[in-house]
């Protein structure tokens, strides 16, 4: 790899986790296609908006991580294939086949029909919080909200929600405990194994006794059309479970922090709640939960900004850097809920554009809107620089804890 002007060590510090945007600005300005060595794997980071959008649709940058070179071993670890060999890590026509089977469940009309149930879940969670005048908002609200919604959509029994949530949180918070790296890897691998075993058994149970849920619908599609293998059913269920709550939970946490640290924008939203749908888009652009798009592999030598990316290289498209590109957005580092900035890359771009975008928007709109209405005088429970975040090496940008206070 050629030398990067920004030492890789800067990308994996507490300071970077707290505020990566100055580093992203340096990447865009000094080396917009930057080779970086990470604790998990080496990659090239693409950080300018136009390059990012092109890369997200570049057929030479493959999403198929499960070919003969077994790139997934470098990225996800030795036990990951049972959970990660899904449409997120596939190219057309395989990706097209898998996505088509799931897409009907996420059609906008069907998602809007879920509004009453999402509203009920939001209010049930807040009912437990309101009397106390304080809460740990990630644990009490941001994480359980999308987890309950996607679990019900998939058909995971209510009695299993806590177990499943426990496994997913071990995976989500990897690297944040005081355990040794070896202990951390062992804990993640055990959680992956337990979750794979559980989902395999759940698919088998749904096959024996179908219900009105998404897993049963996928099984029916498999049986009628012969288009989903048994392993694909399990990995697709994992993708929908994990992607269906992880990024939404992190986004709600990030959005609340952004609003509480920009009181003029919070006041604006409280006075003009009709701004909420567009505010969701601006908050996602401003501090999205997925800083770097899921990995791509160069199937041949490619060139961006005069930099040669050799065949076989892992490529990361830095969505949060692209969404702050001053060549594309005016005053991108300013949170402005009134400004119509046009499309951002928070949900990706191209054929891998987020399948659950309608559900994520619905949960964020109802969740954040109801939260602000029902928790008056909402404020952070600790100074912003004391918030505990996911480690910088995590693929997600989010909070481990979000203590808040409000008028009970």
Automatic annotation (TrEMBL):
GO terms of biological process kind: antibiotic biosynthetic process
Keywords in alphabetical order: Antibiotic biosynthesis, Heme, Iron, Metal-binding, Monooxygenase, NADP, Oxidoreductase
Organism: Micromonospora endophytica
Pfam families: p450
Name used for this protein in its record: Cytochrome P450
InterPro entries for this protein: Cyt_P450 (IPR001128), Cyt_P450_B (IPR002397), Cyt_P450_CS (IPR017972), Cyt_P450_sf (IPR036396)
Family from the record: Belongs to the cytochrome P450 family.
Pathway: Antibiotic biosynthesis; mycinamicin biosynthesis
UniProt GO molecular function: heme binding; iron ion binding; monooxygenase activity; oxidoreductase activity, acting on paired donors, with incorporation or reduction of molecular oxygen
């Amino acid at each position: 790899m050629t030398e990067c002007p920004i030492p890789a060590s800067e990308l994996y510090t507490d300071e970077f986790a707290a505020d990566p945007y100055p580093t992203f600005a340096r990447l865009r300005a000094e080396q917009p296609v930057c080779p970086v060595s990470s604790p998990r794997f080496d990659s090239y980071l693409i950080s300018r908006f136009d390059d990012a959008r092109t890369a997200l649709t570049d057929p030479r940058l493959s999403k198929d991580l499960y070919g003969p070179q077994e790139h997934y071993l470098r990225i996800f670890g030795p036990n990951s294939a049972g959970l990660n060999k899904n449409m997120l890590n596939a190219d057309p026509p395989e990706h097209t086949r898998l996505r088509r089977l799931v897409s009907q469940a996420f059609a906008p009309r069907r998602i809007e029909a879920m509004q009453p149930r999402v509203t009920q879940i939001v209010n049930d969670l807040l009912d437990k919080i309101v009397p106390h005048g304080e809460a740990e908002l990630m644990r009490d609200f941001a994480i359980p909200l999308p987890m309950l919604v996607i679990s019900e959509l998939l058909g995971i029994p209510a009695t299993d929600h806590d177990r499943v949530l426990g496994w997913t949180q071990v995976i989500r918070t990897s690297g944040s405990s005081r355990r040794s790296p070896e202990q951390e890897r062992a804990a993640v691998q055990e959680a992956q194994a337990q979750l794979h075993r559980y989902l395999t058994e759940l698919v088998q149970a749904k096959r024996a006794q179908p219900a009105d849920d998404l897993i049963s619908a996928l099984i029916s599609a498999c049986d009628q059309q012969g288009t989903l293998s048994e392993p694909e059913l399990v990995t697709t269920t994992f993708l929908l479970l994990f992607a269906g709550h992880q990024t939404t939970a992190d986004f709600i946490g990030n959005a609340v922090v952004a609003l509480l640290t920009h009181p003029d924008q919070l006041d604006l939203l409280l006075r003009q709640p009709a701004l909420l749908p567009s505010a969701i888009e601006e908050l996602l652009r401003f501090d999205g939960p997925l800083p770097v798009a899921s990995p791509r592999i160069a199937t041949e030598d490619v060139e961006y900004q005069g930099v040669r990316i050799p065949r076989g290289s892992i490529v990361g498209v830095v969505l949060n850097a692209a969404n702050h590109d001053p060549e594309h957005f005016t005053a991108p580092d300013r949170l402005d809920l009134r400004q119509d900035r046009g499309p951002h890359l928070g949900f990706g771009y191209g054929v891998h554009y987020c399948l659950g975008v309608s559900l994520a928007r619905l949960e964020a709109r109802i969740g954040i809107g109801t939260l602000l209405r029902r928790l008056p005088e909402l404020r952070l429970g600790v100074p912003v620089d004391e918030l505990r975040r996911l480690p910088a090496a995590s693929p997600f940008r989010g909070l481990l804890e979000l203590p808040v206070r409000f008028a009970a």
